Amino acid sequence: MKHLFILVCILGIVAYLDSPISMSGHRIDYETLVPAMAEVAGEEEEITSIPTFEMQLIKKEVIDGHVVETYQEFEVLKDKNGEIISSTPTEKLEYLRYFISKP
Question: DSSP 3-state assignment of 68?
Answer without folding.
Answer: strand
